[in-house]
Amino acid sequence: EVSTDDPETAFCTLANREELNPEEDSIHHCLYQFTRNETLTETNKLLCDVCTQRHCGPKNNISEKKYVYTNAKKQMLISLAPPILTLHLKRFQQAGFNLQKVNRHIKFPEVIDLAPFCTAKCKNVAEGNTKVLYSLYGVVEHSGTMRSGHYTAYVKMRAMNNHLSDLVLRGQSQASEIEPVKGQWFHISDTHVQPVSVSKVLSSQAYLLFYERLL
């Protein structure tokens, strides 16, 4: 979405992201890097229609127009907090001419706050709120290599989340909890299902993470 907001507020977030100091190899660090402020210069300059019209005039023949490029800032932020947050980790990297799987553990929490990664004018967050909280309810894990492997899942069996239903059906939530939704975790591998502890879930090699909105 292209925005023409005031430059003073265009890059503002719901919560101060500079106080995060995210730990390396964590989902917070991944989100911080993905939403970082970038400067576009040299060959990455932005085509500016206003500068082009000011330089050439709006009535010039388009074939004679000399386009003007300018330095700019770019930042990707969340403008609409989803009821269900799905995070897909990039678990591969280029190794010469081949792709290599990334097997290191990425830390992720039971409850995550998206506010430092949301625009200050996030559309479905009540004015004055400085938290956008989500509770973990599902994890997909992949074992193996880039060529072959096996997918398993961790799923939390829990009571119906009425706050989430309100958010999905009416676009609003009155939730005030900041604790993870209570429930029992299960590990699912093909037809094998067994109960597991939350510590087992949080130590998994997450490939996909599923969160439901609390606040």
UniProtKB/TrEMBL annotation:
Keyword Zinc: no
Gene Ontology BP term (one): protein deubiquitination
PROSITE patterns attached to this UniProt entry: USP_2, USP_3
InterPro entries: Papain-like_cys_pep_sf, Peptidase_C19, Peptidase_C19_UCH, USP, USP_CS
Pfam (any one): UCH
Superkingdom assignment: Eukaryota
Keyword list, A-Z: Hydrolase
GO molecular function: cysteine-type deubiquitinase activity
Any one GO cellular component localisation term in the record: nucleus
USP domain boundaries: 1-214
Protein name as annotated: UBP16 hydrolase
Organism of origin: Peucedramus taeniatus (Olive warbler)
